């Protein structure tokens, strides 16, 4: 598949060819039946005036009933087929864009998470609209052609008027639709940037309040949002001009057909029945012409959205993962790594060990967490990180995720329940044990729903300590071969922290566990402590030995 806007649209059309064929047939029947209604009325008038027969009138009424039934059923089932295909196709593109955005190392594209979210939702939906646009375009064309042929049987001039008028309308509107496409692309980009800005603000709201930067951040968002609003108004003006021009041109054509039919009837060149048919078709043709004339706009919007999706889908991955899997055991090795504040970091954690890393500088801890979480491509740092005896660059992403879990200190809490946050997949074996180890039992006991108590987005109805314990319970329930915890209890009181540290050590016995922390409780519970200072390991022993022998360590971790 060509990962361009046009290529994405071609793929969507090819993948839904069957549904579009049936949809086109049914919508064509709908438009044909709609067109047949004024034609039938004209014929009824013609035959009634000529024959004055009740039998002919009865057959005419039966024919109208058949036409009305065809209109109803063909529209119902045709739109059902097309909308199902549209929704399914939008889902496919949303999943594909989201899969790119969820890669452990972001793709090499200058888009923030908020922009990727917009592309995965609005742009995916608008791209999939092409599946409905094409059948509706064809069915509208069927209606216009039937109208032209029917009027042409009455008078060649009427048929030519419809054909020439339709071509003129589409030519004029295609010029306006070009502006709509360009404006829509810019509008979607600005809305996406505003979404990214507000996502960043929400994530950093507490730190911003901490140093008084919330007002400046708000002004920054207001500027971006104002730009998006201005562009939306510009696009709305163009859309309004397009809709107004389409309506006016369609009305002009319908009026021209009506007046021409009236003049021909007055001149005796067409019959009264043909006049009724002509006037009826002139009124009816407004709808398919309106639909027909709007198609260029929808095509341009779909193409603009597809091109934005191509920005993500066609972007080269910063990291190309390997295909190997870690060996059984769960050992972790960081060998002479230089990245950010890390200056030749070296350490090895054997399978089944519980190791605590006391990082004197938060920046060093954050850099180490990013490396272990595979958020940094191998080319961005020197040295080697090995998991299960293999370099991470040689391992598949799926294998790394199954083998190694890094739980950050600011792990997200999702809207749902306590249970769905702890065990999102519903397959965890250690949910009860994880709840007890993280001391989340008191939170569950507070609510009559228990573990099924509702949780708002980002854990808005939980305290900081409760959110932290919920995140820790989720990490423990995953039961990964290697678990890395970064400051898991900074918002928890000292007594609870002591209990959690002992519980984690007990639950993770014989499982590789690394805790990056300055918590005395976790440092004391660990088999050994590594001191990370100035980007390297400067000391290694048990917590109690370091307290008695290392004054810097004692000053850094004693509370």
Describe, in plain words, how this protein is organized in 3D.
Residues 318-559 form the ABC transporter domain. The chain has 559 residues and is α/β, with parallel strands linked by helices. It has 20 helices and 12 strands. The chain has helices at 5-15, 17-51, 54-101, 113-128, 130-154, 156-203, 205-210, 214-266, 272-284, 286-313, 362-372, 397-403, 418-422, 431-437, 441-445, 464-477, 494-507, 520-525, 543-549, 551-557, and strands spanning 332-339, 342-349, 354-359, 382-387, 390-391, 404-407, 416-417, 454-455, 482-486, 512-516, 528-533, 536-541. It has a 6-stranded mixed beta sheet with strand order 6-9-10-3-11-12, sandwiched between helices. Strands 2-1-4-5 form a 4-stranded antiparallel beta sheet, with helices on one face. α2 runs antiparallel to α9 (272-284), α3 runs antiparallel to α5 (130-154) and α6 (156-203) packs antiparallel against α8. The protein is elongated and about 115 Å long. The relative contact order is 0.09. The model is unreliable at 204-211 (pLDDT under 50).
Mean pLDDT over all positions: 81
Number of helices: 20
What would you call the structural class? alpha/beta
Rg is 34 Å
Strand segment tally: 12
Strand content: 5-15%
Stretches with pLDDT under 50, minimum 5 residues: 204-211
Q: Strands of the biggest beta sheet: in what spatial order?
A: 6-9-10-3-11-12
Looking at this protein, list some descriptive labels.
alpha/beta, six-stranded mixed sheet, nucleotide-binding, 559 residues, membrane, four-stranded antiparallel sheet, single chain, Type_1_exporter, transmembrane, ABC_transporter-like_ATP-bd, elongated, 65% helix
